[in-house]
């Protein structure tokens, strides 16, 4: 980038900006905006925080905190956007780069013809629900491109539901692993991301990952399949993220590491069928 910077700028035109957003994502940029100026900002971090979903680290505390929560995908886009705009800010409430104009551009990307969505670029919302109250307690907006999933921005009701944000991320990591995601892009490095097992890579390495993985079969990110499949604690209970001791305990109960039991295998087959159907749309 000019001068070794991180941003390219362009006028944000809501739906008319959708083809440009898809192109920027294809090349590894994160599309953001400056809401006061209605300026589209395409960010190429000097260092990108990434994680292979199959290597996500999940501690015992997170497994305990996951009880009573459910994870879904694309069930409540508008509610997630509202949650981010209300609860995520830099210095003051409302200081948030996810403007209504940018949201409209994100939504328009999903309506583009397939030829204009190279890598099968598609935006998603991810939701974490408190089952007892039915409340949306955490969520995020992100997108897929080839075999990469990028987390854009999210929120969590931290004061009311301690650990909800961490549970949402951990459960999403496990879902990404089951869905065949090769690389999870977490943007800027932060402590809570590093605790999940993420690491920072230089811009050149990130660009290499993008060039390699964007041409793979587009990732179909769907809500967990089957009865009880969305249970966050059940998602975290798989082989992904397990310690050696936990894997050994699973072996003693009759399941080999990486080899799901009959019911889980059936649920995964149902999910793969749903993925194939979405890719054909």
List keywords for this structure.
281 residues, alpha+beta, seven-stranded mixed β-sheet, 22% strand, globular, disordered C terminus
Describe the protein's topology.
Elements: E1 7-11, H1 18-26, E2 30-34, E3 39-43, E4 47-51, H2 60-65, E5 69-73, H3 77-87, H4 100-109, E6 122-130, E7 135-145, E8 148-156, H5 164-178, E9 183-185, H6 191-195, E10 199-202, H7 203-213, H8 232-236, H9 244-252, H10 262-280
Parallel strand pairs: 8-9
Antiparallel strand pairs: 1-3, 2-3, 4-9, 4-10, 5-6, 6-7, 7-8
Protein architecture, described:
The chain has ten helices and ten strands. The protein is globular and about 45 Å long. Helix 5 (164-178) links the parallel strand 8 and strand 9. Mean pLDDT is 87; it is low at 239-247, 249-269 and 275-281. Helix 1 (18-26) packs across helix 4 (100-109). By secondary structure, it is α+β, with helices and mostly antiparallel strands. It has helices at 18-26, 60-65, 77-87, 100-109, 164-178, 191-195, 203-213, 232-236, 244-252, 262-280, and strands at 7-11, 30-34, 39-43, 47-51, 69-73, 122-130, 135-145, 148-156, 183-185, 199-202. It has a seven-stranded mixed β-sheet with strand order 5-6-7-8-9-4-10, sandwiched between helices. A three-stranded antiparallel β-sheet has the order 1-3-2.
């Amino acid at each position: 980038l000019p001068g070794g910077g991180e941003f390219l700028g362009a006028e944000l035109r809501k739906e008319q900006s959708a083809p440009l957003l898809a192109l920027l994502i294809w090349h590894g940029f994160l599309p953001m905006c400056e809401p006061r100026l209605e300026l589209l900002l395409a960010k190429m971090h000097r260092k990108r925080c990434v994680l292979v979903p199959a290597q996500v680290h999940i501690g015992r505390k997170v497994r305990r905190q996951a009880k009573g929560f459910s994870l879904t995908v694309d069930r409540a886009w508008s509610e997630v956007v509202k949650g981010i705009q209300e609860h995520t800010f830099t210095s003051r409430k409302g200081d948030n780069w996810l403007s209504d104009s940018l949201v409209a551009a994100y939504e328009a990307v999903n309506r583009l013809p397939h030829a204009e969505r190279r890598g099968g670029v598609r935006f998603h919302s991810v939701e974490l629900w408190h089952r007892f109250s039915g409340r949306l307690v955490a969520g995020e907006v992100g997108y897929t491109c080839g075999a990469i999933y990028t987390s854009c921005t999210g929120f969590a009701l931290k004061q009311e539901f301690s650990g909800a944000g961490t549970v949402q991320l951990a459960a999403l990591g496990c879902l990404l692993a089951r869905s065949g995601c090769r690389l999870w892009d977490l943007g800027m490095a932060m402590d809570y991301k590093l605790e999940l097992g993420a690491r920072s890579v230089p811009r050149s390495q990130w660009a290499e990952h993008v060039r390699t993985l964007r041409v793979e079969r587009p990732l179909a990110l769907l809500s967990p399949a089957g009865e009880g499949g969305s249970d966050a604690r059940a998602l975290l209970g798989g082989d992904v993220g397990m310690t050696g001791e936990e894997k050994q305990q699973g072996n003693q109960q009759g399941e080999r590491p990486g080899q799901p039991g009959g019911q889980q295998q059936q649920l995964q087959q149902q999910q793969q069928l749903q993925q194939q159907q979405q890719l054909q749309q």
